[in-house]
Amino acid sequence: MGKLQSKFSVHTTKYRADGSMGEVGPARAAPQHSLAHSDAVTAVAALKPDLCVSGARDKSLAVCSWRSGAVLQRFTGHQREVTKVTSAPDSSRVFSASRDKTAMMWELQGTPGPRQHFAAHDLVVTGLAVSPDASQLCTGSRDNTVCKWDTETGRCLRRAITRRNLVTHLCWVPGEPYVIQSSEDKTVRLWDLRQLEVAHGFPAKQHIQTCCDVSPDGRLCLSTSSGTAGEGCEATLWDLRQTRSHVCEYKGHFQTTTSGVFLPWGTTLAPSIATASLDSTVKVWDRDTTACLATLYLDGAGALSSLAACDSSTLLCATSSSGIHVLRLRASAEPVLEEVGVF
Question: Mean pLDDT of successive 10-residue segments in the chain (343 residues)?
Fold first, then answer.
């Protein structure tokens, strides 16, 4: 792939366990390929083994190799900006949501057009979660509704309306018939999809909850908060087991935290999470001590919109101004987060 003429400077900031800041300096330049999208990238999700799917303001989805930056497949069909993308593990299907009020299903190695349409919302679709076997889809919208779908037929199986529930994100709980949902009403909800009912509502936060994720074992949930000037902007860890309680918070961003993910467990680091913010930083945290292990500032990238964990040391970060950044967490006495590619 051809390299871009423009360059984005990247800086790393190291944080010690006590929260004090270490040296700040420029990182080495990362390979920069032709961008996968012609406009702001709004969402990215990892696919196995070395692929990812992304959605953008240009109304398209792109399936790329995150190692080479090559665009392998492009899907078109939405009439407005793509807001969310997701897939099921080991599935050949990917799913997207859009400001055109619909969700769609696409087949890897299939035609550029959608395999299935899902239309029942009155406003932008802002939440998207698929079952592990890809047979069911859950969508949420700013119209206060959550819908459950049969992916084969495209039929809406159930539709629930909850007053003031402006959905911001959805995430399926592994191995369970439950979905976690974050909302502009500052709450996080646990939905039982068997009857599409709220099984539990966590205590409201002080700010809009912008995103949510569930740990690989299904025991913990992470949500992220809006905010400004360091007020709010935190990520919150919740226990999904019997106590269903608040566990801890991760504070350090200075603007809205837009995305948070659990990193797959590895052999070199303690259990960790990563967050991205409108302040153009990505942070990696020790899940249990809440210590900030590493920070990467993406100068010139604009707003950071979405994170995806590829493995225990590799992250993808979608940005509004400079495409998708590939980040590598290098384990050492003081872990370092580095940029290793842009596409």
Answer: 38 42 48 90 94 98 96 97 94 96 95 95 98 96 98 98 96 96 98 97 97 96 98 97 89 98 84 97 97 97 97 96 96 91 97
Spatial CA neighbour of 216 closest among 283, 263, 169, 268: 263
Question: Please, what is the Cα angle at 301 between 12 and 94, to 5 degrees?
Answer: 110
The rounded distance, in Å, linking the Cα atoms of 180 and 192 is: 9
| Parallel, antiparallel or unpaired: strands 102-107 and 93-98 | antiparallel
